[in-house]
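Good morning C.,

I know you're traveling, so I'll keep this short. The sequence:
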Amino acid sequence: MDQATLDPITLVVGVFLVILAILWFCLPFAIFGTKAKLNELIVETRRTNEELALLRRQLDGSNDKLSVN
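The tokens, ready to paste straight into the viewer:
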């Protein structure tokens, strides 16, 4: 086999490894970029859960008033 000729499998593996290296390099930036958004979602979810608990208590209180009458 001639050294100047690239085997197709070697070429595919090489391209795959280059793409993998680029993605691996970008991974930390993607993770740290989404961290702030995840924290915002956590805060918003907690706020929503608190509001739902308040509504549930209000509904339970109104159901108790209805059953007494």
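Safe travels,
E.
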